[in-house]
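Project standup — Tuesday

K.O.: blocked on the structure for the chain from last sprint. Re-posting the sequence here as requested.
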Amino acid sequence: MKFLTIALGLTLPLLSLQGCSTRSRGATGFNPVVGVWFVSDVDAPFPYHMYVFNSDGTLQQANPDAGDPNSSDSDGKGIWAADGGRIKGKWVEVMADRVTHKFPGGTHLQFHGHPVRRPNSAG
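H.V.: unblocked you, prediction finished:
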């Protein structure tokens, strides 16, 4: 299986798992970022994440909850948009302290990514 790399701001590379993608009804164009992506973020407590870029401009981010022994975080929810030949977006998640069960804050991540290129399907 081929992997693709897209570098997002804050050195957040995305690796494709040949994810699912569909064209929405009435769409005039298809953006190759639409689909499911495996993400490696070396600065995160647990570096492996799953991202889903939907054709309607929304996205979801998820990673194992056990990645951080001190806090639990929700799945990330956000938006993305084409910006010329690149993509940009932002997502947020909320956190909970595992001991006190209080809200210590959340993550707000903005990104601006390089162009995505799918491999040629021919031979």
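K.O.: great, moving the ticket to review. Residues 5-20+32-113 form one domain. The first strand starts at residue 5 and ends at 8.
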